[in-house]
Amino acid sequence: MKMLTRALIAGALAFTALPTVALAQAAPPIVVVDMGRIAAESAASKSAEPQLKAKFESVQARAKTLGDQFRGEYESLQKAQPSMAKEAFQAKAKELQQRQVTAENEVRGKEQDYARSVQYVRQQILEAVNPIITAVMREKGASLALDRDVTLATAQSLDVTNEVMTRLNAALPRVNVNPPAAPAAAPKK
Asked: Which of 20, 92, 137, 160 could bridge across to 142 with cysteines, CB 3.0–4.6 Å?
């Protein structure tokens, strides 16, 4: 009787496992790529890093210089206020505010240029890596590629990041950090 019970349980377990095994075999193969690692560690990204850092530091230095300059000018104006005519003080204060707005616009433009440079670097890497991922998928017989960041857990055997990185580094060792100039807006009619 015990033998029969064990055989029935084993058969039931095998039967319930059968659909799972069949589904696993029928599921399309998947590859996983760590796009964060590609963005941070690829040769192209590393080649752009010093130039992007220099641009960022330049923006920060200019903002600090202008901030210090205007802070000093406002303090001087405040100290001079008691000895100035009201109209002269107001005119000087208005002129200083206008110059400060111009300086803020300058810094904002430099920040936007920096952001465009970062985006351009990312765009170049993405444009180069997509066909590489497609080729690796085809070679592995995969019909789906996922970014590691959108998975909860994956088997290490599905991760093709190293292979993609090697090919990307060979295909795109460096990128340009200066995006092409935007086309001028057409005049309004």
From this structure: 137
- Candidates 101, 102, 100, 171; CA nearest to 135 is 171
Concatenate the DSSP letters of all residues of 70-84 into one string. Answer: HHHHHHHHHHHGGGS
Outline where the chain has alpha helix (H): 2-26, 35-41, 43-80, 86-140, 161-171
Q: Report d(CA 143, CA 159) in Å as an integer.
A: 14
Other beta carbons less than 10 A from residue 32's beta carbon: 22
How many whole angstroms separate alpha carbon 174 and alpha carbon 53? 15
DSSP assignment of 104-131 equals HHHHHHHHHHHHHHHHHHHHHHHHHHHH
Give, in order, the Cα–Cα distances in Å from 65 to each of 58, 59, 104, 107, 189.
10, 10, 12, 11, 41
Q: Are 43 and 174 in contact (CB under 8 A)?
A: yes
Structural contact between residues 137 and 145, judged by C-beta atoms closer than 8 angstroms:
yes
